[in-house]
Specification:
4-stranded antiparallel beta sheet; alpha+beta; 17 strands; single chain; 3-stranded antiparallel beta sheet
């Protein structure tokens, strides 16, 4: 990385176990419709229809397939095509199939009993703080810009060889902020961010799930347990005592996040004078058949049943996180750069108490060669309904550690090539 020459802290370099030069990258915040609307509408073989919600797939006894759709005012519209692609996300594609009856009297795609099962997300949280013994001013604690302007973040991971040898699921970690809601962090910028997020205009700054998690509300799948929110006067006191860093945050991060027309800063991290940072882990959720989603009794505005989520984790998930922290701690001590300070005596119990899910949903329309073992085939077509495809992370058979978007795009491009071939025949 010649354009990012510095290490996370001086002396901290890769070895045969741990990698510290891997980068997490943020893509452009592309508004798909604003960017591609004119191109899509100009295509002669493509018709763009907005304002419709697909409620169910209808299959007749003779195999004819149609989509039962509705406008927001509940006006019914039927759509017909040779082939259909469901690209409704990791859970909504599954909800649509669960709400669609096949002639064989089971939900479409549930011929093998796998539809809705194998639900995975990630396992994540904070159980330790990383105490560096190096110069705090030389710690790369925040986001950086790559040579092309991409925002990147350094992280701890493992070498492929070590993972395979020790059967360690994918897991990574990076430096994080302390809980914003707890004023004991004594940071003016963190307190300002907390007060902004809990204000009446807080919804403008972050999605609700993220915002609520950051201000101390319990949200399943939050990076760490909700912190008790301190009184507003304590946060105001932090701002008064720390005016320079607060002003630097407002006029530095603010424009990069909210006024930039290109790449926007994905977030911020506060400098720690003690060189101690929460170590946030983000790992693979191992497949479990009993982890599943089903239709709930409650319905949405179009009378479509909502989903009931029953996400399950195993002791193997927890044990992998504990082992990863042991390896990271040993690595830091070998390099004489720092150590981990655990927040609880029983680390496994700390991981177990913070289990949850909510991001990058995968697994519920599982891909398989054999129809008995899944929902869709290698071309993302439902085994028992080959003219209906599912372009979604729900087809993944494992969760991995990273965001699922890249592989969704790869599978979608491959599906596009397949459809182009078969529709020409």
């Amino acid at each position: 990385m010649p354009h990012l020459p510095r290490t996370l802290v001086p002396g901290l370099t890769n070895d045969q176990v741990v990698r510290v030069t891997d980068l997490e990258r943020w893509s452009l915040p592309t508004d798909f419709w604003l960017t591609y609307e004119s191109e899509l509408r100009a295509r002669k073989n493509l018709r763009v229809i907005t304002g419709l919600t697909c409620k169910r797939i209808v299959v007749s006894r003779d195999g004819a397939t149609q989509l039962d759709c509705s406008t927001i005012d509940k006006r019914s519209i039927t759509l017909l095509a040779k082939r259909y692609v469901l690209a409704c996300g990791g859970l909504e594609s599954t909800r649509l199939l669960l709400n669609s009856q096949a002639p064989a009297s089971h939900a479409i795609g549930d011929h093998s009993g796998h539809l809705g099962r194998w639900y995975m997300g990630h396992i994540e949280g904070v159980v330790a703080d990383l105490q560096f013994t190096t110069d705090p001013r030389q710690t790369v604690f925040g986001y950086e810009r790559d040579i092309d302007g991409t925002y990147v973040r350094r992280r701890f991971s493992f070498t492929r060889e070590f993972q395979l040898e020790h059967q360690l699921p994918n897991v990574a970690a990076w430096l994080a902020n302390p809980p914003l809601a707890d004023p004991s962090h004594r940071s003016g910028e963190l307190s300002f961010a907390y007060l902004a997020l809990r204000s009446p205009v807080g919804r403008l700054f972050a999605p609700d799930a993220q915002r609520l998690s950051l201000i101390g509300k319990h949200v399943p799948g939050a990076p760490y347990p909700s912190a008790d929110a301190g009184p507003v006067r304590s946060h105001l006191g932090n701002i008064v005592r720390d005016p320079i860093s607060t002003a630097r945050f407002i006029f530095g991060f603010g424009p990069k996040r909210f006024l930039s027309k290109g790449r926007r800063a994905p977030g911020f991290f506060a400098f720690s004078r003690s060189n101690t940072y929460p170590l946030q882990y983000h790992g693979e959720h191992l497949p479990c058949r009993e982890s599943r989603v089903t239709l709930a009794a409650a319905k949405d505005e179009l009378d479509v049943p909502r989903l009931k989520i029953d996400i399950r984790y195993s002791e193997a998930d927890i044990e992998a996180v504990v082992r990863a922290h042991d390896y990271w701690d040993a690595f830091l001590r070998r390099r004489e750069c720092g150590r981990l300070q655990y927040r609880m005596a029983d680390v496994a119990d700390g991981v177990r108490r913070n289990l949850g899910g909510g991001f990058h949903q995968v697994g519920t329309t599982r891909m398989s060669e054999d129809p008995r073992n899944g929902v869709v085939d290698r071309n993302l077509a439902i085994h028992t309904l080959p003219n209906v495809h599912v372009a979604s992370s729900s087809s993944f058979v494992s969760s991995g550690q990273a965001n699922s978007t890249f592989m969704i795009v790869v599978f979608s491009v491959r599906l596009g090539d397949f459809l182009r071939r078969v529709l020409r025949e």
